[in-house]
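ok so for the tutorial part 2 we go from a plain amino acid sequence to predicted structure tokens. step 1 is just haveing the sequence, like this:
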Amino acid sequence: MKTFLFSVLIFLILAAGVMIYRYSYVKLRFRKQIAHRYNVVAPLILKLDSKEGITKSEVRIMVQDPSLRHGVFRVLEAYSRNDLFPVEYFTREKAAEGFMVNWLEFPTELGIPPDEIELMTMVTIL
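step 2 — the prediction. this is what the tokens look like for a chain of 126 residues:
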């Protein structure tokens, strides 16, 4: 009986160790990912704060990266500057692509952006 209880205790300790390691790894990767995105978008935020002129081409360069698309849109929306968001990226398909890339980049999913995304079909929900 003691051997069984000792085995269960060892298993629980190992499982807890794996869970703690996994949680800290995911947290660290997620923080790095967020820091990278902020570093890319920070100049835009600083320009909007100081009311400097921003061109659509500056915004277009950022939103070409699907993982930044939603964040840039939300920043522009917060500053009431949606007019700077490129029209060709203001579609359901491009928004879905951005959300899909964000989901796949999360450390518990693919962990990196996909090499390619292809729109297979569109479904209308009534």
